[in-house]
Amino acid sequence: MIRFLLNSTPIVLDITRADVTVLQWLREHQLKTGTKEGCGSGDCGACTVVLASLQEDGGKVQLEYESINSCITFVGALHGKQLITVEDLERNAQLHPVQQAMVDEHGSQCGFCTPGFIMSMFALYHHQDAHTLWEDTHALEQKIERYLGGNLCRCTGYAPIKRAAIKAMQNHAGDHFDTVSQSTIEALQEIQRQVPMHPRFMHPMSAAELGGMRIQYPDARLLAGGTDLSLEVTQQLKDIGSIIYVKQVPELLSINTNDTHIQFGAAVSLTRCMQNLIVAYPNTENMMLRFGSEQVRNQGTIGGNIVNASPVGDLPPLLLALNAQLELQCGDQVRTVPINDFYLGYKQTAMRGDEFLRSVRVPLPAANTQVFAYKISKRIDDDISAVLGVFRLQLEDNTLVDASVAFGGMAATPARALALEKVLCGQIFNESLVAKGIAALASDFAPISDARASAHYRQNVAANLLKRCWLQLSKADACLQVGDYVGG
Ligand SMILES: Cc1cc2nc3c(=O)[nH]c(=O)nc-3n(C[C@H](O)[C@H](O)[C@H](O)COP(=O)(O)OP(=O)(O)OC[C@H]3O[C@@H](n4cnc5c(N)ncnc54)[C@H](O)[C@@H]3O)c2cc1C
Ligand code: FES
Ligand code: FES
User: Looking at the chain, which residues constitute the CATH 3.30.390.50 domain(s)?
Assistant: First the structure.
């Protein structure tokens, strides 16, 4: 049985299949058709819904509201959460403030995308800093762009939609979800006291249980956020018979920081991973905010991105450059593998079939170390990288005492640029070293041409990223991207 709240209604679900999506369940089983299906692949945001879940902060239990794409979320992942759809926002024939603002600002024409935008705005309306953030209009606009980056509109244009979001947030006065939050918390606590049981959607509640299930059910697929796995169902029309869901395993959800490293449980969401990583590595924020969309970052996990082993995955180059260590578990045995030994070939890793990824240890920066991460893709929001370059440089005076550089999109796996590193290490970082580095880089990779970019473009871009890194370090006023030229 899968138990959750559909708005305030307790649901006990006993469906036979493990791979029914939340969108399918809403539209076909509940006949709630307010939530739309556009792409079915997480790219358009038409199917956005909001999940509220319990979070403990300093001993106080709160509700955390996150937008997700219902088309790429399986219903088993709803256990213990509150599912809120566009139908739930109106109250006593009064539109919710975000809906009213969309009407007032003419934010909708054909209306197909509108429920998705409304739900993304609703998640922002319940942002934890909702009461303070809105005093700073610039910060508010940035947050709005971030929250709406995963929603596409083909006819209205984004200006009225953005105006509506600004208006709703600046007139923020709370809503009926705030009024009933205590009873929602109690209802979710009651659900969480009951262990979820579904023969094909298994919910291990500890790493030991997960280890046992991995061995006992070798054909079951491990599911974290599902932002990769679900596409096998929605795009390739495959059946996924059995699922082992890792996102309720406490060991895989923890984040611990000590003097030397941050340890992320493999099922930590990309949103949480970003919040913690940027404290140690502030220059990675721009790249992390370009990972998918808000919905994808809320759903997707650090572990899913590593294990998926895509040559254009965004986190692996960063983790390679940072020399992260992976903890792989089989049964109750844990072994540590440097991520630099993890990728063996295209979509091949050193993880055995009976293992799972338990955690990722990311070293904290050594003294005088700077890390730069650059993502190059066709669109700013919600696009897969053509090339992604990460530079970890330790500089004493002007000399590079240590350098590790990794790229995505340049080979069959995310990979280090070892020839480039050899040229950089021990040398003074100046323009002539950059030129030598670019020559060395040509021997590191022989990229392919595909729909995202040609081999020539990739090679050129990788070289330019090295130049960009040097400019960023050496010239405080350097214009590094098109936006920097505005007004210049
Ligand atoms: C619209 C959209 C945009 C995207 N944008 C980006 C992007 O910008 N950059 C990018 O890099 N990726 C992107 N992705 C891909 C995807 O979001 C990421 O790879 C994400 O990190 C996958 O995490 P997940 O938890 O959803 O993985 P899942 O789909 O749950 O799992 C992926 C694979 O990893 C396995 N797995 C998961 N957790 C574990 C574990 N703990 N141990 C062992 N195996 C495990 C699963 O069995 C599966 O084979 C995008 C995807 C979508 C749909
Ligand atoms: S239908 Fe497009 S993101 Fe779900
Ligand atoms: S209003 Fe038509 S797609 Fe947005």
Answer: 254-484
